[in-house]
Amino acid sequence: MIAAEIALPPALLFSQTMPYAVAAGIAMHIAFTCLKPRQLVTFSGLTLGTYLAFAA
After folding, report:
1. Which residues of 19-53 are buried (b: 16+ CB within 10 A; e: fewer)?
2. pTM attached to this predicted model
């Protein structure tokens, strides 16, 4: 999991890996929200928004 978090930002920089990185980031943050819903709803929502804004 930590390796995925470290690999995600560089993967977002390249157009070949960006769709996969966005999908992985969304999946990770959905999983985080399921594990700790009260603490991470706001954080995960904001992070998902930034993934989509960055990818656009």
Report:
1. eebbebbeebbeebbeeeeeebeeebeebbeebee
2. 0.70
